[in-house]
C-alpha cells in the first residue's frame, strides 16, 4: 500500500493527512470503529464470548507438538464480497496473492535483490537484517465444525467463499462485510475483499485494514482490502495488513519520529508516501534517505548515516520499492504466534494466534502436508437463465448449467431430466424446454467429469503414493543470509561474503564531509577508550572478501588490518549508541554477512478420478393454465396441518448464477413450525439460525378472484431483531400470468419485520406481539392470481413468523382481529437524539403520542391526529436538545392510555 496519504487520530498523538489514507490500522483504530458503530459491535458481544470460550477450550486440547522444520502453517479463508463486477476476482488471482504473501514474509520477494536504474532496491545495510518468518499461508481445504456438535463433520472447500452483496461498494461501516461471511478466527485467517471502501473523513482512499491481535473482538478479526489490491501482482497491501494482523505497527510509529517498538528499524520522521512528508518520496536513487537533522532525519547522521528503512513493508513507500521485513519485526510476529519468552523463568507463554498453526488445527483445516482433498465433491447446479420458474402452459423455460465452474476440458457429458419424461443428452449447457401439461416438475442435471486433485508435502513420506496417479516435484531457489557456519549447515551453495559500505563509501556524504551534527569522538562509554573499537571477525577474509570491497574498507576507516582483528577509528557509527559485541550485525551500520542459495523442493502427488454429479431440484418449474379453477369466495390458511404448506404453497430459494459454489452451505427456508401461532398451535417460520443472504419465497397456487368486488390478502406476522438496526424485509407480490412476472402488492419494512423489538434469545412471540395487515389492489380482480411472500435477508435477525393467511373480500378481511393488541415500537432505542416510533393496530382512532420524564411530567407532544390504518410511523423525531436519561413514550387512543414504553436518551458521540 504505497503512494497515498494517511490520516491517523490517536488519543495521544496526531498526524494530519492532506490526500489519501492507505491503511486503516493503527493503535486505537478498532475502538474508533466501535464508537462510530456501537450497535454493530454490541450485536457481536455474545458471539465474541462464545468464540473466546471455544478458543480457550481448543487451547486446552492442544498438544504443543510442532511441525518438524518449525514452519508455522496458517489456514486462510478468503471471502469475496462482490456484486457480479470485476471485484469478483478469480481463484487464480487469490492464490497468486497468497503466493506473493508467502514470498514477502519469508524474505524471498522477487524484488529483494533487484535494482532500479542501477541502484539496489535493498541496500546491504538493511538487507543484512532481513527477517525470515518461516510462515506459510495456505487456503483451507476443510470448513470449520461447530465444537458443540458431536455429529458434525467438516466439508471440503477451496478456501474461497463468494457472497453477492451491495456492501461491496463503499459500505458506511467498513466492518459490515464481516457479518456477511465469517469463519472462526482462532482457526482461520479471514480475508475479506470488496470493490471499494467509503471515502474517508479526509477524502482519502483506503486500501485495506486489519485487526491487531488480542483486541477482544474475535468475530471481526482478520484483514479487509480492496479486491484490486488482492489481484494486483505488484501490490504489497496484503503483506502490509498481515503484518498488522501479526502485531506490527507502522514503521514511523504513527507519529512524527514515532516508535514502532522494533529494535532494528530506524526511526522514521514520517510515513514515506503519506501524511506530512513534504517529499520527494524515497526511491533507491535517494539512499540514504532522511539522514541527519538537516535532511528531515530524526537523529544525528553520526548515529544513523544510513537513514530510513523505506523499503520496509510497514511503510507507505511505492510498491515498486518495498522488499522486506526486519528480523526484529519477525520477532514480534513470533511473539504473536508462539508467545513471549520469560527469561527469568525460562518459559514461553501461549501466543494469541498459537492454536491456529498447531498440529491439531492444520489437520482440522486440511492444510497439513500431504492432505488429500476429498474426491468428486464438485456438484452440478443450474438455474433459469431468465430467472423465471413459473409460467403459463405453452411457454418455454430456458435453463443454464454450471459447466463453466468446472475446469476447462474436464466435463465429459451433461444430461438434463425435465421431470415430464423428456431428457436431453446433447451435452448443452443452455437448454430450452416446453411442458405440455399443467403441474409442478422436478428438474435434474447430471454432469460427468474428470477430476485431478493434488497433495503437496516437503517430504515424499508424507504423500499417499499408493493411490496417486503420478507424482512430481518443484524446486525453488531461496536466498539465505547469516554466518558462514549457518549457511554451511544449510548446505547452501554460492556462498559470498558481503560487507556493507554504502553508508560509509568514498562517495558518501559521511566520508567526504564531516556532518554538521556529528558526534565524532564522543564515545567515552566504551571500555576500550575513545575513538577506537575492537571487532573480532571469524570470517577468513583473504578469499571471501573481494578486492574492491577490501580497498573501500581501507579508504573508509582510519585503521585497517588484514587479519581477523579490526580497529576502527572515528568514523565508526551505530544505531542506538549501544555497542554489544555479540550483536554486531544487528547494531552497526557497517555490516558483514554471508549470502548463499538453498534449494527448496516440494513434492506433488496427483490423483485422477472420474466423477458423476446429479442435482435434483424438487418442484422447480410450475406450469399453470391461463385461468385458475379455484373459484371459492375466500381461502384461509392457518397451517394447523403441515400439509397446508405442501398442498397449496411452494417454498423456493431465490436462484441465480451468483449463488453457485462448490462450497456447500445450509440455506434458510420457510418452514412449518409447531407451537407458535397467532391462534391455534402452528404457523410458518424463517429460522434465524439458517439465514443466508438472498431471498426465501413462499408462492401460492393460482386463484380466480374475478367474481370478488375488492379482492385482498390478509396475514399475521411477528418478528424480532438481534440488534437495534434491523435490515431484513418482506415483500408481497402478485402475478396474473402464471408467475412469469411478479408485481409488488405491499411490503413490510425492516422495522415491521422486527416489530417485537430486540431479542437476544430465540424469539417466540407473545399474543400481543403479533401484527396483521391487509393488502389489496384493483388488479387482483382477475381469474389467474398467484401470491408470493419474499423474505429478504440483508443481514442477521431473529426469527420471523407468518400465520393466518386469508384471501377474500377486502371489507371482510378488514374486520378487527380481537387476538391482536395495539403495540408501539421505538427505533433506535437507546438513541442519541434521532428516533422514530411505529404504531400498530390503532386504526380509526384519535391518537396522541407524548414524551414524559421519570416524574410523569409531559416534555413533548410527539404526534396528534387520527390514524386510519393498522400501521403508522411517526418519523423525524429529534430529541437531541433534551438532557440524557430515561423517558417514557405514552400513547393515548380515544382518550385512554393504551401503551407506555421506555426510551433511553444517551449522549451523542
Structural write-up:
- It contains 17 helices and 42 strands.
- By secondary structure, it is α+β, with helices and mostly antiparallel strands.
- It has five domains: 314 residues, Collagenase (Catalytic Domain) (3-Layer(aba) Sandwich); 157 residues, Immunoglobulin-like, CATH 2.60.40; 88 residues, no CATH class; 195 residues, Jelly Rolls, CATH 2.60.120; 83 residues, Macroglobulin (MG2) domain (Immunoglobulin-like, Sandwich).
- It starts with 7 loop residues before the first strand and ends with a strand.
- The N terminus is likely disordered.
Strand content: 25-35%
Q: What's the overall geometry?
A: globular
CATH topology of the largest domain: Collagenase (Catalytic Domain)
Distance between the termini: 31 Å
The DSSP helix count reads 17
What can be said about this structure in brief?
The chain has 909 residues and is α+β, with helices and mostly antiparallel strands.
Question: Which secondary structure elements does this structure contain, and how are they paired or packed?
Answer:
Elements: E1 8-9, E2 14-15, H1 29-36, H2 38-43, H3 45-61, E3 72-82, H4 91-105, E4 115-116, E5 119-120, H5 124-127, E6 135-139, E7 160-164, E8 189-194, E9 208-210, E10 223-226, H6 227-231, H7 237-245, H8 327-338, E11 341-342, E12 347-348, H9 359-364, E13 382-384, E14 390-392, E15 396-401, E16 411-417, E17 423-424, E18 430-434, E19 439-457, E20 470-482, H10 484-489, E21 493-499, H11 509-512, E22 533-536, H12 541-544, H13 547-556, E23 565-568, H14 584-587, E24 592-624, E25 635-637, H15 643-648, E26 649-653, E27 670-674, E28 682-686, E29 694-700, E30 711-719, E31 729-735, E32 743-748, H16 750-753, E33 771-776, E34 786-793, E35 800-809, H17 810-813, E36 823-827, E37 834-840, E38 845-853, E39 858-867, E40 871-878, E41 885-893, E42 896-905
Parallel strand pairs: 3-6, 3-7, 3-8, 8-10, 14-24
Antiparallel strand pairs: 1-2, 4-5, 9-10, 11-12, 13-15, 15-18, 16-17, 16-19, 19-24, 20-24, 21-24, 22-23, 25-35, 26-29, 27-28, 28-35, 29-34, 30-33, 30-35, 31-32, 31-34, 36-37, 37-40, 38-39, 38-41, 41-42
Amino acid at each position: 500500500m504505497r503512494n497515498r496519504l494517511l490520516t491517523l487520530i490517536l488519543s495521544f498523538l496526531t498526524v494530519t493527512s492532506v490526500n489519501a489514507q492507505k491503511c486503516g490500522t493503527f493503535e486505537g483504530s478498532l475502538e474508533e470503529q466501535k464508537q462510530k458503530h456501537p450497535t454493530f459491535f454490541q450485536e457481536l458481544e455474545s458471539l465474541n464470548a462464545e468464540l473466546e470460550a471455544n478458543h480457550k477450550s481448543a487451547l486446552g486440547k492442544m498438544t504443543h507438538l510442532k511441525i518438524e522444520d518449525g514452519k508455522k502453517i496458517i489456514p486462510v479463508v478468503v471471502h469475496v464480497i462482490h456484486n457480479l463486477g470485476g471485484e469478483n476476482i478469480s481463484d487464480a488471482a487469490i492464490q497468486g496473492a497468497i503466493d506473493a504473501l508467502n514470498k514477502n514474509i519469508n524474505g524471498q520477494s522477487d524484488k529483494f535483490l533487484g535494482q532500479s536504474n542501477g541502484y539496489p532496491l535493498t541496500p546491504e545495510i538493511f538487507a543484512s537484517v532481513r527477517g525470515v518468518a518461516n510462515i506459510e499461508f495456505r487456503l483451507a481445504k476443510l470448513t470449520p465444525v461447530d465444537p458443540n456438535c458431536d455429529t458434525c463433520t467438516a466439508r471440503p472447500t477451496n478456501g474461497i467463499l463468494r457472497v453477492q452483496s451491495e456492501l461491496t461498494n463503499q459500505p458506511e461501516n467498513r466492518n459490515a462485510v464481516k457479518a456477511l461471511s465469517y469463519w472462526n478466527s482462532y482457526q482461520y485467517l479471514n480475508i475479506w475483499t470488496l470493490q471499494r471502501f467509503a471515502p474517508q473523513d479526509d477524502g482519502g482512499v483506503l486500501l485495506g485494514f486489519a485487526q491487531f491481535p488480542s483486541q477482544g473482538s474475535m468475530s471481526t478479526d482478520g484483514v479487509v482490502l480492496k479486491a484490486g489490491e488482492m489481484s494486483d501482482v505488484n501490490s504489497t497491501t496484503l503483506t502490509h495488513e498481515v503484518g498488522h494482523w501479526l502485531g506490527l505497527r507502522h514503521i514511523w510509529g504513527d507519529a512524527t519520529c514515532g516508535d514502532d517498538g522494533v529494535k532494528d528499524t530506524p526511526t522514521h520522521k514520517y510515513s514515506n508516501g503519506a501524511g506530512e512528508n513534504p517529499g520527494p518520496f524515497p526511491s533507491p536513487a535517494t539512499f540514504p534517505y532522511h539522514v541527519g537533522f538537516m535532511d528531515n532525519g530524526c537523529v544525528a547522521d553520526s548515529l544513523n548515516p544510513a537513514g530510513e528503512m523505506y523499503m520496509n513493508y510497514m511503510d507507505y513507500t511505492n510498491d515498486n520499492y518495498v522488499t522486506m521485513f526486519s528480523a526484529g519485526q519477525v520477532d514480534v510476529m513470533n511473539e504473536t504466534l508462539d508467545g513471549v519468552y520469560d527469561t527469568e523463568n525460562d518459559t514461553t507463554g501461549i501466543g494469541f494466534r498459537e492454536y491456529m498453526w498447531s498440529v491439531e488445527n492444520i489437520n482440522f483445516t486440511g492444510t497439513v502436508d500431504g492432505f488429500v482433498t476429498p474426491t468428486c465433491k464438485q456438484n452440478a447446479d443450474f438455474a433459469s437463465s431468465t430467472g423465471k420458474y413459473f409460467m403459463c402452459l405453452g411457454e418455454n423455460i430456458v435453463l443454464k448449467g454450471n459447466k463453466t465452474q468446472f475446469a476447462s476440458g474436464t466435463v465429459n457429458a451433461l444430461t438434463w431430466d425435465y421431470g415430464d419424461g423428456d431428457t436431453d443428452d446433447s451435452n448443452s449447457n443452455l437448454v430450452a424446454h416446453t411442458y405440455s401439461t399443467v403441474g409442478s416438475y422436478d428438474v435434474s442435471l447430471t454432469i460427468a467429469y474428470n477430476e485431478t486433485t493434488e497433495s503437496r508435502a516437503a517430504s515424499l513420506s508424507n504423500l499417499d503414493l499408493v493411490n496417486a496417479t503420478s507424482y512430481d516435484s518443484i524446486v525453488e531457489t531461496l536466498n539465505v543470509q547469516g554466518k558462514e557456519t549457518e549457511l554451511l549447515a544449510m548446505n547452501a551453495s554460492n556462498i559470498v561474503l558481503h560487507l556493507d559500505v554504502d553508508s560509509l563509501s568514498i562517495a558518501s556524504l559521511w566520508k567526504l564531509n564531516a556532518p554538521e551534527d556529528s558526534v565524532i569522538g564522543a564515545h567515552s562509554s566504551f571500555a576500550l577508550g575513545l575513538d577506537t573499537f575492537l571487532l573480532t571477525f571469524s570470517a577468513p577474509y583473504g578469499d571471501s572478501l573481494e578486492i574492491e570491497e577490501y580497498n573501500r574498507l581501507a579508504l573508509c576507516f582510519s585503521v585497517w588490518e588484514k587479519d581477523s582483528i579490526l580497529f576502527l577509528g572515528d568514523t565508526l557509527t551505530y544505531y542506538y549508541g549501544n555497542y554489544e559485541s555479540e550483536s554486531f550485525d544487528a547494531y552497526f551500520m557497517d555490516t558483514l554477512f554471508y549470502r548463499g542459495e538453498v534449494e527448496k523442493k516440494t513434492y506433488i502427488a496427483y490423483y485422477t478420478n472420474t466423477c458423476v454429479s446429479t442435482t435434483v431440484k424438487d418442484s422447480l418449474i410450475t406450469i399453470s393454465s391461463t385461468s385458475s379453477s379455484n373459484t371459492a369466495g375466500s381461502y384461509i390458511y392457518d397451517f394447523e396441518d403441515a400439509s397446508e404448506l405442501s398442498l397449496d404453497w411452494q417454498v423456493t430459494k431465490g436462484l441465480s448464477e451468483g449463488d453457485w459454489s462448490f462450497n456447500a452451505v445450509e440455506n434458510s427456508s420457510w418452514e412449518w413450525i409447531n407451537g407458535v401461532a397467532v391462534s391455534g398451535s402452528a404457523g410458518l417460520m424463517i429460522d434465524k439460525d439458517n439465514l443466508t443472504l438472498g431471498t426465501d419465497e413462499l408462492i401460492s397456487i393460482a386463484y380466480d378472484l374475478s367474481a370478488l368486488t375488492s379482492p385482498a390478502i390478509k396475514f399475521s406476522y411477528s418478528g424480532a431483531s438481534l440488534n437495534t438496526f434491523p435490515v431484513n424485509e418482506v415483500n408481497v407480490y402478485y402475478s396474473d400470468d402464471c408467475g412469469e412476472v411478479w408485481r409488488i402488492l405491499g411490503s413490510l419494512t425492516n422495522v415491521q419485520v422486527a416489530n417485537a423489538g430486540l431479542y437476544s434469545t430465540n424469539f417466540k412471540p407473545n399474543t400481543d406481539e403479533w401484527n396483521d395487515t391487509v393488502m389489496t389492489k384493483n388488479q387482483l380482480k382477475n381469474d389467474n392470481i398467484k401470491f408470493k411472500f419474499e423474505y429478504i435477508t440483508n443481514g442477521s435477525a431473529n426469527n420471523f413468523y407468518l400465520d393466518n393467511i386469508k384471501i377474500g373480500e377486502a371489507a371482510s378481511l378488514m374486520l378487527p382481529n380481537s387476538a391482536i393488541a395495539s403495540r408501539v415500537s421505538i427505533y433506535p432505542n437507546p438513541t442519541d437524539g434521532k428516533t422514530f416510533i411505529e404504531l400498530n393496530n390503532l386504526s380509526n382512532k384519535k391518537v396522541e403520542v407524548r414524551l414524559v420524564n421519570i416524574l410523569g411530567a409531559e416534555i413533548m407532544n410527539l404526534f396528534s391526529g387520527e390514524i386510519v390504518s393498522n400501521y403508522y410511523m411517526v418519523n423525524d423525531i429529534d430529541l437531541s436538545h433534551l438532557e440524557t436519561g430515561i423517558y417514557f413514550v405514552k400513547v393515548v387512543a380515544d382518550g385512554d392510555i393504551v401503551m407506555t414504553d421506555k426510551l433511553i436518551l444517551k449522549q451523542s458521540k
